[in-house]
Amino acid sequence: MSEDNKTPSVILENVSKWYGQVMGINDVSLAIDGGVTGILGPNGAGKSTLFKLLMGRLKPSQGSVKLFGIDPWSDTSPYRRIGYVSESERLYDWMTAQDFVSTLARLHGMTREEANARAEHVLDFVGLHDVRHKEIGKYSKGMRQRVKIAHALVHDPDLIILDEPLHGCDPIARTSIMNVIRELGSQGKTVLVSSHILEEIERITEQIVILHNGRLLALGNLYAIRDLLDKHPHRIMITTDEPRKLASAFISEEPVYGVRFPEEGKLEIQTNDLSAAHSVLPRVIVNSKVSVSRIDNPDDNLESLLGYLIGGT
Amino acid sequence: MSDDLIDLDGGQTRMEVAYGSDDGDNDSSAIVAKKEASLGAIFEQNYRPWDGNLGPRWVRNYAIFRHHVFGLFTSKGHRHYNPFVRLTILVIFIGAISPIAMLFFSSLFGAGPDSFIDKMWGINRSNLWGQVLGYFPRNLCYWPLLTALVVGGMISDDRRNGTSAIYFSRPVTRVDYTLMKYLSVAVVLGFVIVFSYMAYYTLAIVFKGEGWGFLIDTLPLFLSGLLCSLLLVITYTSIGLALSSISQSRFFSAIAFLSIIYGTKLVALLVDLQFETSILYVLSPYDCLAHLGQWLLGLELNYSHSLSLSVVSLIMMNLISIMILISRVSSLEVTRE
Amino acid sequence: MDDQGRKLSETVWTQLDRKAGAITELTIRQLRNRISTWVVLGVGVLLISLLLAFYIDSIRANFEPIDNDGDSEDWDNDGYPLGQEMIYGTSDYDTNNYPGSSEYVYLGDIDYNDQPRTHYGNHTWLYATGYFTPTWIDEEAESPFSYYNWIDWGSRGIDCPDGSPFDDWTYFQSPSYCALENGTYVVFGASFAGEGEISVEPGWSAEWGYMTESFFVEKHPKSMYIDEDPINGIDDDGDCLKDEYQTEDNSPNDSNRNGISCDVEWIYDQNGNLVSIRADNNVDEDPDDSEHIGESSHRTFIIGTGKIAFVMILGLFLPLFLALGLVRDESENGTLHYLLSKPIHRGEFILYRLLGYLGIVVSYTVMLILIVALITSLIGPGDSIVRLSDYPVWMGIALATILVLTAYGSIFNTVGLVMPKYGVYICILYGIWEFLMGLFTITIPNASITMLSVSHWAIQIIDAVVMISWSDTSLIQQKADAFGLETGISFFWHPPVHTLETGNPFVALIISVVIMLSISIGMIAIGQSIFRNKEIM
After folding, report:
1. Which residue in B140, B254, B274 is closest to C301 by CB distance?
2. CB contact set of B38 (below 8 Å; sequence gap of 6+)
3. How many percent of chain C have pLDDT more than 70?
C-alpha cells in the first residue's frame, strides 16, 4: 500500500491496441494519479477501449498497462482497489439495488452482513437509499446509472473508472451524478470519467485527457490546454441590444484584435488571449453601460477544441 | 431527489417524460413552463394526408415472404440465415433426396424389380411412407432439426430485437405478418420435405422407365404420401412457430421444439415397452402423423389405439399451437421487450 | 509469523468461499427468475408424474394374481380345480371323476363274437346289450363317468315290445332297459351295477369290472392354483409329472429334450455365465406375478425411468435450456462486466457459474428421484413395507444423472464460450447425437461407436449399479426370456459392457464415473483457458 502510493495508480506505456486493421488505441502513454480526470474524445476515439485495457478485458497489442504496478490482464488482484462502471446499460432487472450491490460486494470477499451494510451505505451515498429495495427494472435511467456507480464504490476503491456515467441522463440525474463524482474526487480518490461532452467534464474537473482516433491529443488542465493554444483565435459571443456600441468599446482593448457582427443583436469578439479577454470583459461592459443578456464561449466545446488540436499538430 | 433540485412551483403540469417510456421514469417529471417562457414560438403543426398509392396487399406480403425465404440462398438484403444453418439444411436436403441417387444407380445397373436396391428404395407403400414419415433418420434427425433451425428465430428474434416494429410501422397487419411468417416457414420446410418427396417419386418413375399403368397404380399412394408430407409440414410449422412466438430466445424455441418431438416420443416408447399400451403416442406429433400415414397408405398399423385418437390429437396440436401463435403475435409489442 | 500465516490462509479460503457463494447464489437466483426455467422444470415434473401414474396403474392391474395357465378353473363343477385333478390324473371334464372318486377297473368282457356269451358275477357292467337276470341290483351305485349310459333304476323302464326286443333296436333309446315278465331285464348299451347273469345278444358286447373304494380328498381352494409355480425350476404343483393324458404316448414330458422330464435346463457358457434357461412344459408355467412379473416389471420401470426419463430426457434437455447461456448470455448482455470487475479469477467464475446451475438442477433431480423412489418403494411388489434394495439403484440413477448434467453443462457452457455465434447450433446437433447414441446404447450396448457419447457412460453406470444392487437381475431377465414373460427387462437392461473382461460391475462403474468426470473436468478446463484469454468487448 505504502509502496504503491509512490507510483501513479494508472500507468500506460506505449500502449497500442488494434482490432484487425482498426486501431483502437495508438501508442498512448499516460500516468494518472489522484483526483478526477476527464477522458474526453468523440465517439470512437478509444475511450472505452482504454478503459477495457485498464480493466484487463482486452489485452494490449503492444506496450504495457499497469494498475498499481500490476498488469490487469494476467492478474485480477488490482480489482480489489478499483471500481469500474461500464458503458453497458443492462443490469439485472429482477434484482433490487440492495441485492445487486451486496451480491457484487460479496465478490470482494465480504461476508453477507458486511456486504449488506456496505451496500446500504453506498446506496445512500449515491442517493438511492429510499428506493434500494425496489427492483432495478423499475428504475429510471439516472437511477440505473447511480446503481452502477454504487456497485463500483461498494468496496471503497482507490481508483474509480466511470465509462460515460452521464450518458442518457436527464439534467437532474446528471447533476446528482456529477455531485457524486466531485465528492469522490474531493475524498482523494483517483477517478477517471469519460465523456464526449466537454461541458460535462468541465463541471466535474479541470484535469483532462483528450483522445482522438486512438491517439493521445492532450493531457493536463483544461484551461491550461486552452491557453497553450493561444496562437489560435478564440471567440467570445455577446448577445446584446447594442452590439455596435459595445464593439467600439472593445476594439480599443489590448487582447481583442477583431470584432464581428454575425447576426443581429450579437457581437463576436476575437482574441488571442482568452483569460486576458475575460478579465477585461466585465469592466468594458460595465463602462459602456450596454445591457448584455448573454455571454458565450462558442469555442469551448470539444469540437472546436479538437479542431484546434488537430489543426495545430 | 427531484424535489430539492428543481423548483416545482412554476409548473403545474406534470408530464410523463416522453423518452424512455419503458425505463420506469415514474418519478422524474418534466416541468412545463406556463407563463415564464416569454421567448419562443409555438409552431403550428400541419399534417397533410398522404395521398400516394399504396401497393396492393399481396405485394407487401410477398416482400415479407421473400425476405424470409430468399435469405436461405442469399443473405444480401434478406433475412440472415446463419451459414451453419444453411449448411445443415443443405445436408438434410441431400440426405432426403439420397434415395434418388440409389435409384439412379440401380437404373444404371439395370437391376430388376426384385433387386435389393428396388426393395430398399423403389416405389412401394412402405417406401413412400418412409420417405416422409420414416423414423430413422428422417424423423429422428432430419425434420426436427430442420424445423428447429428454421423456426428458431422466426418470431423470437423480432420479440428480442423489437424488429417487429419494422413491420407494424408499415401498412402490414398482424394477420399478414403471422400468415407470411407461417408461409415462409412452411415453404422452407416444404422445399426440403415435400419437394424431396415429389422429386423422389417423379425421378423414380423416370429412372426405372415405368409406364402409364404403373403411374396410375401408384398415383393414389403418391397422393396419400403427399398429403402426409403436407400435414407434417403444417404440424411442425404450427408447433415451431408457436414456440418461437412464446420466447425471446431463438434457442429456447429450437430446443423446446426438439424436446417436444423427442420427449413425447421417448416417453411414449417407454410406456409402450413397459406397460404395453400405445395410448401415450397420441402426445407425440410424429406418431400421430405416422399413424395417420400408415392408414392413408394402407400399411399395417403399428399402434394399438384407435386412429381417430391420433387424428383428434393432431388437430388439437395444430389448433392449440395456432391459438398460442395468434395470441402471442397480437400481444407483440412494437417496442423492444 | 506462523500464526499470521494461518490467519492469512484462513482469510483467503473464507474469501474464496464467499465469492463462490455469491456467484452461485446469483446464478441460482438468475435461473430462478427466468420463466423458461420453471417451464422446463415443470415439464420434467409432469413427465415423471405421468410415468408414475402409469406405474401405479399397472401395479393395480397387473400385480393382482392372474392364473396364467388357467388351472384354477373347475371346468366340470365337481368342486376340484383343474390343477388338483391334473395331479390326481382325473378328468377335468367329468363331474363324476374327481380326486378320490372310485375308479372303474376292467375285469373282462364279451365281445360281439366271443363264446360263450353268458357271464355271471357281481360287477359293474358297462355298455351291456342283452338279457340280464339279476340276483341283486345296486340301485344306489353311481356311474364312474358321467358320460356312460348309466341306468337310472329309479325311473321305470319302458315295457318290452313283443317278440325279440333286438329286432327293432331303434325301439330302444340308449341307455335304456325293459323288464321281461320273468324278472329278466333287457338292457341296451347300458351301464349299471349289480349281481346276476348276463347273456349278451349275438353281435353285441358287454364289459364288466369293479369300482375301487372311493376316498375323501380335500378340495383345494382355487387360489392354490394361482401363482402356484414360483420360478425355481421345480414342478411344485406336480402338474407336469402327472400330466399324462396330454401326451399321447404317455411318455414323460420332456419338451426341452435333455432326457430329464419335467425339469428346467440352465445353460452356462464356459465362463460360468448363464446363457439361457429352457424349461419343460408345465414347469414354472404359472409364476407368481407379484414375485416375478411384479418384481421384474418393477425393476424395468426403475431402469427404464432412470435411463430414458432421467438420463436421456432430463439429463440432456435441462443443460440445453439452462447451461448454454451461463456465461455466454452474460457477455452478450454486457452484465459480465459487473462480475468481472471484481477481484475474481475468470476460471473461478466459470466454475462457480456451473456450481450455481448444478445447484438448481441437482437439487431438482435428486428431489424428483427421491419422490419417485419413495412412492415406488412403498407400493412396489414384495413383502417388506419399503423396498430398501431399490435405494442403491436410485442412488446410482441420481449419480448418473448428476454426472450427465455436469458433463453436458460443462460441454454446452464451453461450446457457448468458444463459439458464441455457432455454439448453439453445435449444441443442438450434439444433443441429437447424444440422443441417438443413448438409444443405441440401450438397444445395442456392445456397439463401440456409442462410446463417443456421454449418455453411453451414464447408461453404463445405471447398468452397473443395477447389477451390483440387484445381482439377480440377469437371472430374472433369463427367466423372463425362458418363460416368455413380457416384462421389457430384456430391452432396458443389459449387463455393463466395459468391465475389462472381468464381468465385475464395479469396474464398469468406476470406469464410467472416471470417464464422465474427466469429460466434465476437461471441458471446464478448456472453457477456463479459453475464457481466460478471451477479450471481452
Report:
1. B274
2. none
3. 82
